[in-house]
Amino acid sequence: MSDTLTATLSRADHRTEVLPLTARDGRALTLVHLRGPQEPHRGPVLLVHGAGVRAEIFRPPIPRTLVDVLLEAGWDVWMLNWRASIDLEPTDWTLCDAAAFDHPAAVERVLAETGATTLAAVVHCQGSTSFAMAAVAGLLPRVDRIVSNAVSLHPVIPTFSEFKIHRLAPLITRVTPYLSPAWAYRSDGYFSRLVRRTVDITHPECRNLVCRMVSFTYGSGHPALWAHRNIDRATHDWITGEFGRVPMSFFAQMSRSVRAGHLVPVREHPELPDDLATAPPQTQARFALIAGKDNRCFLPDGQALTYAHLDHHQPGRHALHVVPGYGHLDVFWARNAWRDTYPIILKELAS
To answer: The AB hydrolase-1 domain covers which part of the protein (predicted)?
Structure first.
C-alpha cells in the first residue's frame, strides 16, 4: 500500500442520522446511521465503542477515519451508543446488561432498518467484551463477522493494573460510585479533586490532564491507551471531551474476570451461562481479533487466549492480528491508522 494519504471522503461528506433505540430492559440508547455520497453496496456494519466514551470515537479529527474508509468501501455504517456511552444518561451498568439487553436490540433494529439478513460488527474494548458475551451465548445469531479490538473473552492486564483493580478499586467504591477522566476539568466533590491532584503529580507525560487521567483510570503507562507518537495534535486536544463517567460496577466485574482468567457474568441473566469463555461458542460468526502489541490497558495475551479458545472449538475459522507499534485506541486514532490498521479491518470484514 502507498505511504501517501489520499483522502477521498471526510466527515463533511457524512450524512448523519441519530435514531432512538430501546434496549430489551427499556433503557434508552441511540444508533447513529452514517452514509456517504454514494449508496452502500455492501451490507450493514455495526461499530461498538468502549467504556466511558461514545460512538464518536470512530470519527476522530484525523484526515481519514475508519468511518471514511468503510463508507468508501461501500459499507452501510451504523454506530451504537450503548449504556456505557457518555452521550446517554449514566447508569450502574455491567457487561452482562449490555450483552443481554443492548447488543441484541441494536442488531435487530439495524437488520430491520436495512432489510439485511446478517450484519458485521467492529467492536472495541468493553463494547467488544460485552458483544462477545452476547455472541458466544447465542444471542446474536444474525451477526456473521466480528472484528474485535483489544480484548474479548479473556482480559489480561498489566501487573500494576491488577493492583489497582483488585486493591484500590474496592477502596474507591466506598467513596464514589464511579470514576471519570472528565474530573480533569469538572470537579465532583473532594475525592475528584484528590484524584486530579494525584494524577497531576504521577502522570507528567503531557499537558492534557484528561489524557493523563485516562491512563490512571484504565491502564498502566504514560500514556496507557495510545502512544503520543501515533496521534496528531488535533486528536490529542479532541480527547479532552471524549471521556466521562464509568461506574465502579464495571471495575468490580472486570476484577472478578481478571482473577478468573476469562469473562464472568455477575448479574442474574439466565441467557448468559457461567461458562461463556470455556464452553463451545453458540455462534457461527467469524472472529477477527486485533491487539496492539504495545497496549498497556489490555495486554495482547488476552486476545491470543481468546483466539486459542475459538480455534480449539472451530479450527481454522478465526484470525488473530497483533499489530506492532500500536496500543489500545490508536488502532483507530493514529495518523497512520489508514495505512497500518484499517486495511486489516477492511480485509477481515470482507472475508
So the answer is: 44-158
